[in-house]
Amino acid sequence: GSLREPLLKVIAIMRSMEYVQTYTKLSVGLYGAIESLGEMAYEIPSVFSFFLANYASPGGVSNAFLRSPEGILSHKTPSMLNGMYSLVKFGLSECYGGFGLYQRKGCDNEGVFDEALGHLTYNPSFFDEDNVIDELSTLLTSGRVIGPNQELIQRAYLSIMSTNQNQAAALRVAQQLIFSSAEFHTNGIPRNTNIRKDTSSTFAKKSCIQNYKAVVHLQLQGGLDSYNLLVPHSGCSGLASYEQYAQVRGSMGLPKTSLLQIDASSSSQPCDKFGIHPSMPFLKKLYDEKDASFIAGIGVLSTPVTKNDYNEKTRTTLFAHNTMRDELGRLDPYLSMGGTGLLGRFADDLTTKGYSVNSFSVDSGVQRLEGKTPTTVKKALDSKNGIQRFNPSDIEFGDFIGQQAELLNGKVDGYNNVFSDAWSESLYDARNANEYYWAQQKTNVTEEFLAEDLIDGKKSEKFNDGLKTIAQMIGSSECRGSDRDLFYIEYGNFDHHKKMIEELANKLSDFDKILASFVDEMKAQALWDQVTIVVSSDFGRTLTGNSAAGTDHGWSGHSFILGGALDGGKIHGKYPSDLKESQLSRSRVIPEVPWEAQWNAVAQWLGIEDEQGLSHALPNRLSFPSTMILDRKNVFLPDDLINTSCEGEGEPISCSGTLATNVPTASSSHPSTISSSSPSLSPSLPPSGEKGTPTPRPSHIPSSFSPNGQSSSLVPIATDNDNQSWNPSQTLNRLSSIPSPNPMLAPSLIPALSPSLPPSPSQHTSLTPSKRPSLAPVKEYTSKPSNESTRNQVSENSIITSSGETWWLHFVPTLAVFLVTLRLL
Fold it and tell me: Rounded to whole angstroms, how far apart are CA atoms 722 and 195?
């Protein structure tokens, strides 16, 4: 089996569900698909396309030594599903994360497609639950929805039909549930039991919060030419000097007068003065303030090597992006801790020491976060939208779709398809993201996080957004009850095979500006002393250039580490004393220290100080002499904060509810991007950063709706008790408690639900400043009923005609657009 590509899944929906374009003058377009799907035609992020060929989803896929390239986009699961659900309910529009452009009439009414760019027109050949689900299964999954999952979807379809007498609404529910299934997202057949997995969307109970610390692993993708980041300047002894650098690098070198000088006299390096690339003045500022240090001559090593034996002693395939990145994220060349990542093992050890640990990966899979402790939180974040809520548009049936989706992807037996497992895990992560959504909204960032004059537009803006999301999550650590946060984020592309001098200058300029915004934000939150940023790259580059004025894949390079807790202003590691002598073929340089060197010090700073813990976190650490490994006391300042002991479970912690109001604002010119107070912010409203209605809409969610998206009034049709038989009458009784957003959809329920019905539109005038008329839902109908009895099943109750005196108001928006266009012409 395998996972399916996101874009192909959307195309399959549009083709099999008979998508029809309303505005025929426009071509069919999936707008913002690269953000919501991670994939779009003609928008590959690099020459390596959208996926890494050797990527393996954590868990069963990785343990079986299989590959799942498409799994690298698992962090897009919430936005992808929200777009699919929106396509079913609102057509191709922007409603609630949809793939379209706009929906001028708002996003209140499901099944109303008047203003969508197009919509799905599929109607089943038969209307009984067995044949409808069979036909959908055939069209969408080649008939693989069978057994318990088929029965669950059939019951859902039947229950909606029986309750609302609305075949179109029941069909939409069935489509959404199939879109949520592993059968649709993989090519395998899952062995599901319809028993909900044991997961929780709430944060761990804590009796106290220990000294908080966060590590941000920042990977510069492509291979940074770091021999132009850190350059010998003056006060040199021996052969190392700027003159030798200039001779070896030739046209790839930087002029001495352009370098930003730093003092390295206390660092036991061959020169007292070094120069930083002229595009990084903020990095120089941090170094001078002792909040930054360099690690010179660093690279992937399995054991110390020389020119004569590096081939035999090195386990990792050298000079290739994929293998070097894999080893950077794993640091386990002998696979003694198979299936784990570097940050995942850090989280394991910190958890066993009593810390509450959260791990986050931005715009990539969670492979580096994978450990052996199942209770450790691992979340994939989206740089553009941070954490997205699952299915915020579930208007008609509360959290019904989400609860059924969990059962569709519930517990499995030991013979389940491993790719189905990978999909199900990503869906549960999406479902459990609501608390983290509120955590992100809890923090008011004081920096605008929009660096001016960015040269590499899209990629730099994406990195900028990613660091903003990290800043928000760090700011929410207290309400999440987190003692340690581990983040992984990438920024690229530094693979400068051509025009290296110009391209590197542009890239480092953007990097420096964005980094400044993040550091300033951490200082504004008074957390800079508790945050450490570790920078790495695939490899260094060749010292000499190629015929395209670029440099090629090398080995050794230089990295740097940032943080308020550093005893900085130093260059650790070992800068080559003779660049000529250190070279291999094609002017590649052998590393002097391994990546374990800096991570050893970081692990100790986080609280992993015992030998057993360090050997677990860094299993290859003892392959190197202690002189090649950095110790915490040489890298960080003494930690005056004493770690307290946390015992007992304590009380549940939540970030839900009112947003933060006590976060200081830097200045009036830096307004907060998050509302400072919003007790009325209902989850039914489109959140900041999500596509939704142009103006807030009245909430149709009952007052018992909780901030994490769970409605206490809704009981799912299927249960996770495998010993309980299904009773249709009990199902209908439970479903009768679902408040209907439109009382006309189910008039028979009005007497029982009258206390929960939303107030009349006039009572929401403060929420709807728009003066355009409220448009009534149009009649839903089927175009090809198979017989008279099924035709009569379609409800006529949703027909609401406009008043004859106000029909002309429907044309006001169109007329306004026409007049503006005419004026412009």
Answer: 7
Q: Which two three-digit tokens encode residue 725?
A: 């038989």
- Three-state SS string across 430-458, please? HHCCHHHHHHHHHCCCCCCCCCCCCCCHH
For helices 434-442 and 457-475, give the axis angle rounded to 10 degrees: 90
Task: Look at strands 118-120 and 19-21 and give their pairing.
Answer: antiparallel
pLDDT digits (tens, 9 = 90+) for 483-503: 999 999 999 899 999 999 999
Burial class (CB in 10 A: 0-12, 13-18, 19+), 225: buried
Find the DSSP H helices in 354-488: 400-408, 418-431, 434-442, 457-475, 477-480
> Which token pair is 145?
């929805």
The two tokens of residue 238 are 């021996």
For the stretch 601-624, pLDDT in tens is: 999 999 999 999 999 999 999 999
Mean pLDDT confidence for 685-694 = 35
d(CA 563, CA 571): 15
What does the pLDDT read at residue 219? 96
Taking residues 278-282, report their average pLDDT: 98
Cis peptide upstream of residue 493 (ω within 30 degrees of 0): yes
**Cβ–Cβ under 8 Å, residues 511 and 518:** no
- Please compute the mean of the pLDDT values over residues 337-341 and round it to a whole number: 87
Alpha helices (H) in 254-337, listed in sequence order: 281-288, 310-313, 321-330
Please count the CA atoms within 13 angstroms of the CA of 79 that sit on its side-chain side: 31
Task: Determine how many CB atoms are found less than 10 A away from the CB of residue 413.
Answer: 9
| Beta-ladder partners of 711 | 705
Residue 166: both structure tokens together: 């609305």
DSSP string, 197-252: -S--SSPPPBS-----EEEEEEEETT---GGGTEEEEEEE-TT-SHHHHHHHHGGG
Neighbours of 176 (CB within 10 A): 25
Taking the C-alpha atoms of residue 366 and residue 73, their distance in angstroms, rounded to an integer, is 10
**Contacts by 310-314, CB closer than 8 A, 24 or more apart:** 310/584, 310/590
